[in-house]
């Protein structure tokens, strides 16, 4: 039994017409008829009843339809696996996640990529803020969902979406009942102490240093390693606060906090990031998959919007 014979059989099953079935497979009608006849010899009986007006499957034809589809699906999957192995698409892709990854799009992106590359194992790594970008740059992960900005000299990014920035404060905070906060009011508040290894461009963006006229931010408490630690510190600090992405309260829920829109703050962006000198097939396809899924499913992320120039840079 040959795969091409099964394809011809299923084409006739779908079209209920030999001429249309042959056309859909780019075959001549005599060639298609030969395929069906060869199958019928193997089955030991007719698969279709033909007259001048229609083609109707026999009981044998109906019994063969589902198994034939399964055989073709299995053959296609076997070919995909072989091609992946031949192209080196086996092994492990290490994916870093920072602060909720791509929010509601994280799971669809990973699931879609896994379906496209069934022979590849995806290993996830949770990255704290000061180690997220270095993990990509140093090769500890192959790709990562990061918050921009990044060092674009060494890293490339596919921006998936943009979303507002919010200010996390405790419910008893003096600004908690205001509904929103201005940038000048935010600049007067102390921030949790961040690790010195935090990339400078990342600090500048999230602490809004461009608005401080050269004055350094005021830090409160001991050094904190993770976003979760910082949020819990805000919960207990009298006047503490933390600038976060709008999706963070949904991916990292800490009770007792209020999230205020920061009026006039530039939105933050989520991107898939990898090293510029790491351009293998799997990494490139992860960028493409993430962009395609985010474009199709952007409505899953409240308050998010697609970037104006959606590409890899």
Concise structural overview:
Pfam families: HTH_1 (PF00126), LysR_substrate (PF03466). With 313 residues, the protein is of the alpha/beta class. The chain is built from eleven helices and 13 strands.
Give short descriptive properties of this protein.
single chain, Arc Repressor Mutant, subunit A, D-Maltodextrin-Binding Protein, domain 2, 4-stranded mixed β-sheet, 11 helices, elongated, DNA binding, LysR_subst-bd, LysR_HTH_N, DNA-binding, transcription
CATH superfamily of the largest domain, by name, is Periplasmic binding protein-like II
Q: Estimate nothing, just give the exact number of structural domains.
A: 3
Query: Average pLDDT value?
Result: 88
Segments where pLDDT lies below 50 for 5+ residues? none
Order of helices and strands: HHHEEHEHEHEEEEHEHEHEHEEH
| Distance linking N and C termini | 50 Å
GO molecular function: DNA binding; DNA-binding transcription factor activity
InterPro entries: LysR_HTH_N, LysR_subst-bd, WH-like_DNA-bd_sf, WH_DNA-bd_sf
GO cellular component, one term: protein-DNA complex
Pfam families: HTH_1, LysR_substrate
Describe this structure in words.
With about 325 residues, the chain is an alpha/beta fold. The chain has three domains: about 5-85, Winged helix-like DNA-binding domain superfamily/Winged helix DNA-binding domain (Arc Repressor Mutant, subunit A, Orthogonal Bundle); about 90-160 and about 270-300, D-Maltodextrin-Binding Protein, domain 2 (3-Layer(aba) Sandwich); about 165-265, Periplasmic binding protein-like II (D-Maltodextrin-Binding Protein, domain 2, 3-Layer(aba) Sandwich). The chain is built from eleven helices and 13 strands. It has helices at about 5-15, 20-25, 30-45, 60-85, 105-115, 130-135, 185, 200-205, 225-235, 250, 280-295; strands at about 50, 55, 90-95, 120-125, 145, 155-165, 165-170, 180, 190, 220, 240-245, 255-265, 270-275. Strands 4-3-5-13-6 form a five-stranded mixed beta sheet, with helices on both faces. Strand 1 (about 50) and strand 2 form a beta hairpin. Helix 1 (about 5-15) packs across helix 3 (about 30-45) and helix 5 crosses helix 11 (about 280-295).
